[in-house]
Each structure stands twice: as C-alpha cells, then as structure tokens.
Amino acid sequence: MGVFVTPRKGNWADATHGTLWVYCGPRGKRQLPRPSYTVGVKPAPPIVRTLVGAASYFGGPADPGTGHIGYRGDDLNVHPDSFAELDMGTSLGGLAYGAAVRVVHNGKSIILYKRDIGAGGGGVGGYARVIDLWYTAAQKIGCTGLDIVTIQVLR
Q: What angle do CA 57, 144, 76 make, to 5 degrees?
C-alpha cells in the first residue's frame, strides 16, 4: 500500500515502490520522474593549502584578560568555532575575516572560522606560533597549551 499525501485540494499522490504517481482529478494518473539528487553527507570544502605550526588557546576562565569580543565585534562565547590569526592577522597568509580552516591535533579535527587576530608569541619545537584557538575549540581537539597542529586552509 502506498503513502498518500494531499498537496492541493482535489489532488493526491501515491508513493509506491519508489515511483511517485500523482492523481490530478480528471486529467488522470501521471508518473513523476525520480529525483536526481542523493541523500548523504555534505562534502567537505576543498583544501587550499596545508601547513604545520604551533597553536595556543585563548579565552575562558583561565585567561580572563583577553576578553571575549573578536576584532570585528563578534562575541566569541556565541561563536565557539573561532580562531585568531596571529602576527596581527598575517601568520596564515592574511586570511579574510570569516575564513575557514580545519585544525588537526592528535587525530581529532575541527573546522574553525577567523573572527580575531592576535600578536602571537614564541614558537614551539622549531615551529612558529601561527594560530590561537578559542578555548572551547581547543578543548574539543585536546589542545592543552602550546601544541603542534596541522592547519588546512579551506575554500
């Protein structure tokens, strides 16, 4: 037995065995083409470039001095998927506001968006410090201080 829906008064549809039949009153029964889309996971955005660098985290109860407002007025508590590009916004090539990156650390990854800039600090293990993660994002991938991460700049 099919599933019946009522799209408009006087018309009805019957989905039987993957075929959609629409009954249009006196015009009779018509078969509709199958949809051309597939249901699934949205593909990840393409990677523009990949680099390895040092990451730190900022914000939260352990870092009250930094505040929670990004350089364009964003409340980073409302947008926990945020990062700061260091060297005053040039360490990753001067990414545009809102640019997306995937940060990978110890097999865990997260997609973050540029909503702040920062001065930076010293490097770690020969790698320059290039990114500050908002503290909740750092917690999700297990960054606990200064860590080496892989950064994939996404389109």
A: 30
Give me the phi and psi of 145, to 5 degrees please. Answer: 180, -115
Q: What is the mean pLDDT of residues 134-151?
A: 95
Parallel, antiparallel or unpaired: strands 82-85 and 129-134: antiparallel
CA distance 84 to 103: 12
Q: Where are the domains of the chain?
A: 1-35, 47-154
> What backbone phi and psi angles, to 5 degrees, belong to 68?
-140, 15
Position 101 scores a pLDDT of 97
Of 64 and 115, more confident: 115
Instruction: Report the CATH superfamily, name and number, of domain 47-154.
Output: RlpA-like domain (2.40.40.10)
pLDDT in tens, 68-92: 999 999 999 999 999 999 999 999 9
Residues 6+ apart with CB under 8 A from 95: 85, 89, 101, 114, 153
